Amino acid sequence: MPLYYERPLELTHGEGRHVWDAEGNRYLDFFGGILTTMTAHALPEVTRAVAEQAGRLVHGSTLYLNRPMVELAERIAELSGIPDARVFFTASGTEAVDTALLLATAHRRSNQVLAMRNAYHGRSFSAVGVTGNRGWSPTSLSPLHTLYVHGGVRTRGPFAGLGDAEFIDACVADLRDLLAQTRGGVAALIAEPVQGVGGFTSGPDGLFAAFRDVLAEEGILWISDEVQTGWGRTGDHFWGWQAHAANGPPDLVTFAKGIGNGMSIGGVVGRAEVMNCLDAHSLSTFGGSQVTMAAGLANLDHLLAHDLPGNARRVGAALIERLRAATADTGLVREVRGRGLMIGVDLVRPGTDQPFPRAATLALEAARERGVLVGRGGAPGGNVLRIAPPLSLTAAEAEEGAAALVSALRAVAADPALLPPAAGR
Predict the structure, then answer these.
(1) Cα–Cα distance, 28 to 401 (Å, whole number)
(2) Is pTM beyond 0.85 here?
(3) Mean pLDDT, residues 363-390
């Protein structure tokens, strides 16, 4: 398992948008434990809810009635936008994807699945089987027959030069052509509204609504993987799928990460017909535990009461524009993209369109030296800096982080060792 940084970082505690390491250094957290610390570190409401519930009962499994689980399920079902929705809780986003794939393939009686190029859906055997990013695919073996369609990356690939409407038309034509080559009876399309590990890339708004027209003709289900985009992270919408809502909600939505604010919560919310399709026993030992559900309820209450999705929209928009303006002349930054507090900084070798993972590695280190922690993703090797702080980030903290990042990127761009296009760099 890889660790960030040449000198690996041991985090000991956090508060708000900041964390501290074992040496006492303080950092502005611009990655939130891979988009997991959604509201704030050591949020008092969540800490109190966990402590109070742990003092009563930590765990009981789904074999017994569980009031916190039922209450959180009801809240998520209502927020999902799916009529008569059902919820099943898991302990992680990977397990949520596994569950959605199980449901979709069982309901449709087919192991054929459509996925997006450049996608990432988790590290389990079935989740790797629908991952379209070589850097996160350790095996080509899979229980699924997966076919990959265009549309997850707007500014690279064969359709990059098209306008948004023409891009969508081309992707829909590709989808139709692909379906014509299958045996029929494809189970589902699984897609991230914004690709997370892929470097915060996305197609134009409305792409999946256009796909839905085609999918509906054959009864193919739509699974929206909201493990990273859910809960208002994108600012404009509570769920990422809502940017593609013209033909209604997905059949299944996977969620995880932010809802627990660090506690292990994942799950699927979906149409009752699909959620109830299994004809064998199913339960979860750790999904829906009393402690994690109490944390999720307190965290969700705080998110909504303080309109953190609205804060992500306002602060994120200003942060994106600040980074675009300040890095345009570096020669290193190809694109600053994203929405809300889900922002990617795409780094390329100066004078080319070639992804530059080495520069991202150095920028990660330089940002740490300046007191800011960021993530990385994108092409194999990771050439994109990923910015995803807690949704309570203030305007002043956004400016502090932007200044540090700009300084880090300028320092990397000025490094003469990066100029020669040497092999392996």
Answers:
(1) 7
(2) yes
(3) 96
